[in-house]
Amino acid sequence: MECGGKMYMHLRDWPSAFRAFSEAFLHYNEFGDPRKTACLKYLVFARMLGGSTIDPFARRETKVYEDLPEIVPVAMLMRSFAANDVREFVEVMKLHRASFEADAVLKTCLDQVLEQLRLQALVAYVEPYERLYTQRLKEVLLVDADEVERLCVRAVVEGKVNAALDDAEHVLVMQRERLTEPEAEQLEALTRWSTTLLELSKDTRQRLERSM
To answer: Which positions make up the signal peptide (predicted)?
Structure first.
């Protein structure tokens, strides 16, 4: 079961990974197997990677472990994740990075969880606005301007926000009302253009890093 969970994590099938780790945890817990602690950490990470804010520690079987020293950092991450609090999440990451990186599974997933958190925090933050300058999101997501625009493009492309990115003005324009056909075509073109530029920029940076 635990091996199956790790396989699903590798495949990025987060719901299946969560189910596998949950079953493994319950099995280990029933028989007093010390591997239950690692499995509990894994199922929390799988839950976050799946985009769920449901607290795994709400269950009676897991609640009793929430205050264990080795579980506390993971529980803190989960609370920050559920609150869309990027700043607190990053602080916990930095404070306990050595502990997280000592586990191969958690080390692989840590940055992916942060990416997921930033994406959902972005979606939650922009919801009340009609137009939002991407500069505002730098402080919320704790990333630079290029990364903000990449996350905006991803949110639009994945359908998480009904908006388009005006790359020339660095503005995220919400589409709450039906646009005229020319307006829709213009915003769609701007979003495609922005996506292409960001992909080219990322590719260039990766090539430069490999050549250094």
So the answer is: none
Cβ-based neighbours of 53, under 8 Å, separated by 6 or more: 81, 82
- Phi/psi of residue 132, each to 5°? -145, 125
Q: 127-211 maps to which CATH number?
A: 1.10.10.10
Domain boundaries, the chain: 2-116, 127-211
Rounded CA separation 44/26 (Å) = 14
Closest CA to 194 of 155, 153, 154: 153
Whole-structure pTM value:
0.80
Q: How far apart are CA 143 and CA 137, in angstroms?
A: 8
- Is 131:171 a contact under the CB 8 Å cutoff? yes
List helix spans (H) across 57-103: 60-63, 72-82, 86-95, 97-101
Question: Quick one: angle between helices 104-126 and 145-157, nearest 10?
Answer: 80
Contacts of 131 (CB under 8 A, 6+ apart): 171, 172, 173, 174
